[in-house]
Design goal:
10 strands, Immunoglobulin-like, 3 helices, alpha+beta, 153 residues
Length: 153
């Protein structure tokens, strides 16, 4: 996690739960949510793109994936998350993607725990293919720290 990204998260009132390699874990007090978050391996001009796994205790949501793409995607372009040999088709808006259901979220987190890297692939608004890649070292620990951060109420 870059210093700039960390500073932006802290400026938004987030409580740091820990930094684990390129992944950080944070807690938002109101509404209560805890999340693990990382930026893509590739450097971008702004700190916008990210991958996160969040817990929303009030809503009973656990380990929910959210991806902010580094570029706007083409309408109707598929978004595929790859972790090792596993492939997951994600639902997507213009610049965001997420798992279609809680079962897929759980399968993605299991794959993240044993993977070395993951990539999110789609077509940009101009039709050119692109991928955002993430190192997964530290992801499992950050995901666990986020779960514990919200378990404490």
């Amino acid at each position: 996690m870059s210093a700039l990204a960390l500073a932006l998260l802290l400026a938004q009132g987030r409580v740091p739960l820990g930094i684990y390699d390129s992944w950080g874990a944070f807690r938002d007090p109101s509404p209560l949510r805890c999340f693990a978050i990382a930026q893509p391996v590739e450097k971008h001009r702004d700190p916008g793109p990210f991958a996160s796994v969040a817990n929303w205790p009030r809503d009973g949501v656990r380990n929910q994936l959210h991806i902010r793409l580094s570029r706007a995607r083409a309408p109707n372009a598929r978004v595929t998350l790859s972790i090792g040999e596993r492939r997951f088709e994600l639902q997507a808006g213009d610049s965001d993607a997420w798992a279609p259901d809680a079962r897929t979220d759980a399968a993605i987190v299991v794959a993240m725990r044993s993977g070395r890297s993951m990539s999110v692939e789609t077509l940009s608004a101009n039709g050119a293919p692109f991928a955002d890649s993430y190192a997964l070292k530290g992801a499992a620990t950050a995901i666990d720290a986020a779960a514990l951060g919200c378990a404490k109420g």
